[in-house]
Every structure is written in structure tokens, then in C-alpha cells.
Amino acid sequence: MRESGYDVKMNLISMKSQRLFISAVVIMWAAADWPAFSEEGLTISNTKKQVSRQDDLKQKDNSYWKKVLTPEQYKVCRQGGTEPPFSGTYVHFKEPGVYRCVACGARLFSSKTKFDSGTGWPSFYDVISSDAVELKSDYSFGMSRTEVICARCGAHLGHVFNDGPAPTGKRYCINSVCLKHEKDSAE
Ligand SMILES: [Zn+2]
User: Fold this and answer.
1) Is 94 within the bounds of a domain?
2) Range with the poorest average pLDDT among 10-24, 27-41, 105-119
3) How close is the Cα of 90 to the center of ligand 1, in Å?
4) Are 135 and 145 in contact (CB under 8 A)?
5) Number of separate domains in the chain
């Protein structure tokens, strides 16, 4: 079974390998309330609140993000949750463009580096720029993984693994709910 970024509570005692695990999470998912992006001010908006580029987003507390994000976005972006595999909008999405952070609008990934990993989550072999994300060791759930975080707002995005395709060999396993695709001819 291929290693994935699916966070689940599990009993690893009887397991022979960390790569073997069975997950069972039942979550009710509502339709995503995607923000709209404005290119000029790079502001994003949804039905709740405006987020501007000038804000120091890493200083914002949870009460702020609860106002900005939908419950589904908050659960993954701020609480490190994981959407169920094959449930996200962008798993099989192939349109060209850029993928922005749903929380702050930062450019994170290009469609040019998206590939079908078969894991059930949108997967990329590279980030759109080296400073787009921050990486952090994650030892939760008995696994040793590398968490991928939005460098601008600190949102949890997913995990990165070393079993991706050339040229990087990386597999950025990202939750759809953390992303907002945008058509961009420049990309
Ligand atoms: Zn962000």
C-alpha cells in the first residue's frame, strides 16, 4: 500500500510496517464555499471576511480563522486534518493554471507539476517557488512525515514524500480543500 498523507488515528501495535495501515474516518462534507481571488490586490474574499496581503496572517489566532474559513477549510488548514481520499475537488482536475492557498491566496503550485499519484489527493512534484511553502517534521499518528505549510499564512496543506516522479522525486500530497485553482495563462 502506498504511503499517503491521510491522517487517521490508528493502532500501530500489530502492524509490521508503517506503510501498512487501514484508515476509517467518517466525516460529513459540505459543499466548499470557495473564495474569489482578485489579481490586483491579491485579496481573497469569501462570504465571511476579506483577507488582504497586508495582514500579518501568521499572527492571527484561531478565532480569526474560524471567521475567515469554512468549517471544512478550518479543520484541515488550521487543525491539520485530512480530507478523505478521492473526495477532493482537485484529485482528477487537469485544467491549466495555478493553485493558491485557500486561506490567504498565496500562489503554491502550478498545474504543470501536478501528476496522478493514485493516492486520492492532488499531488505535485514541485512547488511554484522555493519560498511558497515551509516544511516541518511531523511525527503524529506514529508516522514520520514532513508537513507542508503555506509560508504566508501558516495553513496546513498536506505532506511531502520522497517517492514522486522526476525531476524532483518529490510528491507533495495536498488536500484539495486547502487549494483554490485559478486559470493563469502565464503559468
Ligand atoms: Zn496561505
Assistant:
1) yes
2) 27-41
3) 17
4) no
5) 1
Tell whether 20 is covered by a domain.
no
Helix ranges restricted to H, the chain: 62-68, 71-77
- Whether 173 sits among the annotated catalytic residues: the reply is yes
Q: How far, in Å, is the centroid of ligand 1 from the Cα of 21? A: 30
Give the span between the Cα atoms of 80 and 147, in whole angstroms: 9
- This model's pTM is above 0.90: no
Classify residue 19: in a domain, yes or no. Answer: no
Burial class (CB in 10 A: 0-12, 13-18, 19+), 168: middle
- The CATH number of residue 58's host domain is 2.170.150.20
Query: What pLDDT, in 10s, does the model give residues 24-59?
Result: 333 333 333 334 444 333 444 443 455 555 568 999
Cell of 35: 473564495
Is residue 18 in a domain?
no
Determine how many CB atoms are found less than 10 A away from the CB of residue 80. Answer: 15
